[in-house]
Amino acid sequence: MSLTPDEVKAVAHLARLALDDADVPRYATELSSILQLVDELEKAPTDNVSPMAHPLDLSQRLREDQVTETDQRELFQEIAPSTGDGHYLVPPVIE
Amino acid sequence: MHDKSLRELATGLRNREFSSSELTRHFLDRIGQHDSSLNSFVTLCEAEAMKSAEAADRLLAEGDGHVLTGLPLAHKDIFCTRGVKTACGSKMLDNFIAPYDATVVEKLSAAGMVTLGKTNMDEFAMGSSNETSFYGPVRNPWDTDLVPGGSSGGSAAAVAAGLVPVATGTDTGGSIRQPAALCGVTGIKPTYGRVSRWGMIAFASSLDQAGVFTRSAEDAALVLQAMAGFDERDSTSLDREVPDYAADLSASVEGLKIGLPSEYFSAGLDDTLRDVVDQAIKEFERLGAEVREISLPNSGLAVATYYVVAPAEASSNLSRFDGVRYGYRADNPVDLEDLYKRSRGEGFGREVQRRIMIGTYVLSAGYFDAYYLKAQKVRQLISDDFRKAFESVDLILGPATQGPAFRLGDKLDDPVSMYLNDIYTIPANLAGLPGMSVPAGFVNGLPVGLQLIAPWFAEGRLLSAAHQYQQVTDWHRRVPGDFS
Amino acid sequence: MSMQGWEVVIGLEVHVQLKTRSKIFSGAATAYGAEANTQACAIDLGMPGVLPVLNREAVRMAARFGLAIDAEIAPRSVFARKHYFYPDLPKGYQISQYELPIVGKGHLEITLEDGSARSIGVTRAHLEEDAGKSVHEGFGKASGIDLNRAGTPLIEVVSEPEMRSAKEAVAYLKKLHSLVRYLEICDGNMQEGSFRCDANVSVRPAGSSEFGTRTETKNLNSFRFVEKAINFEIERQIDVLESGGKVVQETRLYNPDTGETRTMRSKEEANDYRYFPDPDLLPVELDAAFLDVLRAELPELPDAKAARFQSEYGLSAEDAAVLTASRELADYFEAAASRVKDAKLAANWVLSELGGYLNRDDLEITESPISSDALAGLLARIEDNTISGKIAKEVFEAMWSGEGDADTVIEARGLKQITDAGAIARIVEEVIAANAGQVEQYRAGKEKVFGFFVGQVMKATQGKANPAEVNRLLKEKLQG
What we know:
Chain A is α+β, with helices and mostly antiparallel strands.
């Protein structure tokens, strides 16, 4: 499997990464070489093998429904790029 | 003092041979003297360290404290440290002052350890040479033209150079074991779930596991004991009692069945390194172990599997870095999309972007089954191989890498050859098994490591086997000439 | 425009906020209306290195819902990540369920206006976390993000495309709304967004078995808006098709001010969500014992309660349905009914008098100034002939305005009914004596005049005479 420059751009858009146009061909080459490495997987017979999502065969532990967190807005917003009136600010969100 | 083991330093503190403040000062001075040639630290916490050392001295004076109280430590910069910059090797987090401590940090601080600073690493732990760090590459103390391995390169180099007696690391595909091998130190990655992932910046959640670099297995046992344990903040944390690693160190290797996977000794392995491993095998046989060949038939697919699973999870985990709530934000975004794309495009380095794109691709509509689902199935096969192997052996032994450290820049432009560095370490991550790298000798004057893999939850067995080996060898005591 | 020749197909996706104390994956509070970002902890903010741990109560509530709609509860369900970039979604993904939701196929029974009943299939219900909110005013050219709501537990209830009109859709929605409140898993507050609906609407030529292209309309936060938006969408789609056009598959937004829907994003711009199992969470496994306990704890549900009200209290199907629409109303009625002889009397008073006053003052049943006990006290005075039904309305009004319980009002206002036959007889005789002309008319066969005499007696007793006794005595004395 190899990726065309257009496919690279589409993936970069999906991942919200701004790429320089000049970098796209190189990314296409590099990503294609990684996909070629990965294409080895095709060889493995995996009929009747169930996918393994997790190394441990355990089930989810459940937490009691208790409020344990206190307001730390000031601490958290000290490291925020842009805030106002307790809100995180971003360019206008248009729906 | 920097040539002493952690155990020896602890004894020294108890016996008032030196104070924690003196010890801390000594290591801070060594970092000041030597780190300019290594770049192993990205942040030093000098004032806080001296304060904790003084507090430790008060505790010790009263005869209180943990066995680790007053001993200096460094954390890989992937662990969140409250009030201290936690950048994870990335421009994206260059301005990130963590508002909380990782569980690992909390536990080791609670044990009284003194944090000297944060160590350099590959950006978001993605790399095998420590060259993808926003803060520049770390250099190998055995030869500063060479890489220390990665992604926990800073921690490995700092311990190897005696800048700190112990440093934490994380291992997603070999990021503890590979740099430990290339720097000639002991590195252990316990069973997945043994050490809490809370506050450890995620790369690939189903593979990431924290561990530690020390000179010896004995030291590793001491520190791992304090790091490990159930954490209710991590749903994947193991709710199992942590064995007494230190007490188990003396367990004999006599009768231990050790498996040598034929796949780990095939083409690609450096001949001299192979001789080194053979010598180590002989040592284990002399110690009474029974050695036999085994097969892990699907291990050849581990790298391919890993480069689907890890980027897929990484592309998801790294979606949160969007320039909205913390971290890097591009200047003057024209709109929301521009804010996202430029913050991420400018904040992440090339390797991280490559992996995000691969991960995004393998999860996207039309490719999910062929890549992600397929990789999950092969992952199951790889895990099953180990399960079967451990029905007949107690421990698996092989090389940690294919060869010794390579030159800076050698593999930087060829991602695939870089990825193949982790060919021997990745399988244990996919299966969630504990693995360890132990100094085993030299190739062309450069240290190489022996890898040990134990069944799930049996990192105690790894530590005792390594300890017994280190009782009859002194590879782990060798230090690079420039840093003696 | 006519709907002649078209069939409407509607499916609803309803987001039901679960009323847990803390969030689904963190210990932050879920209370509504807090100052921005004061209930958003490190986990809700998607800070680096944080991890989710699942809230037991959210799982319990979702399973409780599943049992109530007779659905299969998955013994093993899995959380997945749904990826898209949006500022109110801090991690860049929403933790949801995809392939293995906690609640499988179930159904809801609805009753239509003509009294007919239908069963609407529920495809699935899955657990997920809510997103935060964007605020568009007050920040100049920027938008403000408040993440207090981020991580609030939701179940998304997806119906089969089985509704055929806006009215059916509303009936389904009201039934669902009633059910989640019965189950005490959601406060049902639509204004605050605790119960939100997206409507998938398509039309097709009547008799066709294939579905038309559908649109999804978002942001429907009242029953009225749901009905209006769906009807708007039906008309719009029929117009498009009848004028030779094609309906575009897209997401639309309802504007309550204009009553119209407009394009939000088209399918081409639709996201590729890249779902995969969340590696930070393990499969949720529910055993039979857990479900048995939940099943045993289920309250009596609306349909069963309505059936019981009919058989136990002899109520009409319609009255029973209205009284059981909310659990609080049903409880109120039953509390009152249990203290009087005639349950129907209680039903009538709850539905007409009480209902009217609640409506007038825009109060919920739980806010009624007259408790069920107090109402029962009033009804008891009707039953023991202390007051007439007519006087009772006066007493009710006084009780509503806080003048005390029924006996206090009756006493204070001297409204006690005159039941003493001798006293009434004296008044009857006085009235007959004073109205000789009318007596003659009556005796001449003009029976209508009888009402005049009743009126006169009531007037003389200020309405307090027992009406039955008045009738009896008047008849007796007028016979002469």
